[in-house]
Amino acid sequence: MARWLLEISPGVFIGNPSARIREALWAEVREYAGNGRALLAYTTNNEQGYTFETFKHQWVPVDHEGLMLIHRPHQQRPEVAPAKQKGWNKAAKRRRYGRK
C-alpha cells in the first residue's frame, strides 16, 4: 500500500504514515527547521484520539490528567499611552461637541 503526504498549504502536510516513517520525517523536520518552528499532530490511542509535539515553539504541550493541552506562557504587554487625536484644534473640538 502506498503512503502519501498531501501538501494542503505551503509547509502544511497531512497524511497517515506509519509510526516509523512519521518519526523519521519529524527528525528531518527538526533538523532542517533552522530558525523556524514546527508542529506535529497525529492520531493515537488515548482519550482525545490524537496527540501533538512541538519544536522551537513558545506554546508547549502539557499533559493534564490524561488530556494534552497547550500551555501559553503569560506575556505582559507594555503599557501604551492612548494616541492623541490629530487634526483637531480646540475650536474644532468645541464646534463638534457643541461648546462655544
Layout: helices, strands, pairs:
Blueprint: E1 5-9, E2 12-15, H1 19-32, E3 38-43, E4 50-55, E5 60-64, E6 67-71, H2 90-96
Antiparallel strand pairs: 1-2, 3-4, 5-6
- How many strands? 6
What is the helix/strand order? EEHEEEEH
Largest sheet composition? 2 strands, antiparallel
In round numbers, the mean pLDDT is: 78
Oligomer: single chain
Biggest sheet, spatial arrangement of strands: 1-2
Number of helices: 2
Shape: elongated
Class from secondary-structure proportions: alpha+beta
**Low-confidence runs of at least 5 consecutive residues:** none
Q: Between the first and last Cα atoms, what is the distance in angstroms?
A: 83 Å
Share in helix: 10-25%
Beta-strand percentage range: 25-35%
Taking Cα atoms only, what radius of gyration do you get, to the nearest Å?
A: 25 Å
How would you describe this protein?
With 100 residues, the chain is of the alpha+beta class. The protein is built from two helices and six strands, in the order ββαββββα. It has a two-stranded antiparallel ribbon with strand order 1-2. 0% of the residues are buried.
Key features of this structure:
100 residues; alpha+beta; two-stranded antiparallel sheet; 2 helices
Produce a short descriptive summary.
With 100 residues, the chain is an alpha+beta fold. The chain contains 2 helices and 6 strands.
